[in-house]
Amino acid sequence: MYSEDSLMSDLSHCCQPGTLPRHGFSIRLRSLLRVDHSRNALVRRFFCFGILFALVGQALGEGSVRIATFNIAMYGNQSGEVEQRLSGGRWGKAIQLASIIQKVRPDILLLNEIDYDDDQAAVDAFAKGYLSVPQNGLEAIDYPFRMVFASNTGIPSGMDLNHNGKLGDPEDAWGFGRYPGQYAMAVLSRYPIDRENVRTFKQFLWSKVPDARRPIDPTSKQPYYDDETWSKLRLSSKTHADVPVQIGSRSLHFLISHPTPPVFDGPADHNGCRNADEVRFWSFYLNDSSWIIDDESKAGGLPKNEHFVIAGDLNADADAGDGQRDAIDELLNHPRVNDSMPARAAWQSDQKDSNARPIATTQFGKSRFMRIDYALPSGNLRVTDGGIYWPDRASEGADWVNSSDHRLVWVDVVFP
């Protein structure tokens, strides 16, 4: 005969993590299990199974999935430095970052700016040594499914891309970086990642984008990159990736990227042009454009009616900054995108700067507030909540935000 504990155990095994409501489920179940012990075992067993299936059905139908993006600025000056700092579980920066993640508790999380290595040592060290350990009185959080993505950053192109007459500078890599794998991306999930169907676009050529924004020197009116260089340049400064995550019987496409900042260049605005086309890539992908070819030579974008969330530090603000704003504006207004515009829950009462917006996700200097980090769900998902972790200065945990120059952005979605 089923006992309370045995039924609770079976329930925990039959449900995917995160599909159940975050609070109160086990209390409700246990209270319903306290039936009259005079009933015979058969009746009690059927009664328990009825409760089990009814509550599981309710949970799967009503439970939301929390999806987040966070640029954690976890990079070093040379390969292996980040992994070394993470060892031992005592790195103050990583403790603060983990505290933010444990506070928000996303089910699916994109990390921008963490090292790529073949055995994903840095990502695993952060997940196991910090996230799986309670920080600052918070509950630990486990991500059994983790994937780090190879990046163009720091990989030599063999060309003088910054036009200084020598090779081997960070600017001469396919994506800016001092060592291979710097500024890479990782996905941490409580749900299984469908690795066999992950698509990456690390090698996709910039020149293949329709109406590609080839940089032009405003003085000479000539292309900033000669024809030979232009024919070889890759679009993505890190990579673009379509990461299907299996949530029960549903699949959610986690569309991730981290375009180059539209600054640190010159009059030709070559970084601004690249950033705009990196952002535009997702608009084309949502249009299921046939000219898009992934790293495994599969053509096409995302078919109609698929569920997705576009996430990442896109380094583009439709209302501020130095980028070519029409690219991010086009994406935010794409007919398949629901820009729910999550905002800060608590605004700093002493902040009087007119540029300070509740939807800003980063602050450069004293008064430059920008929205450049996004979690954009598809229109066929129901958004139930969302936010930006940027508490009031007087709030507990406010100092944790000093661990990065970006803020964690999250959104809760429900399948229809």
Going by helix content, strand content and strand pairing, the class is: alpha+beta
Share of β-strand residues: 15-25%
Q: How many separate helices? A: 9
State mean pLDDT (0 to 100 scale): 87
Count of distinct strands: 13
Q: Which segments are poorly predicted (pLDDT under 50) over 5 or more consecutive residues? A: 1-39, 46-62
The coarse overall form would be: globular
Characterize the main sheet.
6 strands, mixed
Q: What is the CA-based Rg, rounded?
A: 23 Å
Strand order of the largest sheet: 3-4-2-1-13-12
Element-by-element helix/strand order: HHHEHHEHEEEHEEHEHEEEEE
N-to-C terminal Cα separation, in Å? 37 Å
Residues in helix, %: 10-25%
How would you portray this structure in words?
- It is a single chain.
- The chain has 416 residues and is an alpha+beta fold.
- The protein has helices spanning 4-14, 25-33, 41-62, 81-86, 92-104, 121-131, 227-230, 270-286, 325-332; strands at residues 65-74, 108-114, 145-149, 185-189, 199-200, 241-247, 250-256, 307-313, 362-364, 368-370, 373-377, 382-388, 409-414.
- Helix content is 24%, strand content 18%.
- The strands form three sheets. The protein has a six-stranded mixed beta sheet with strand order 3-4-2-1-13-12, covered by helices on one side.
- The radius of gyration is 23 Å and the shape is globular.
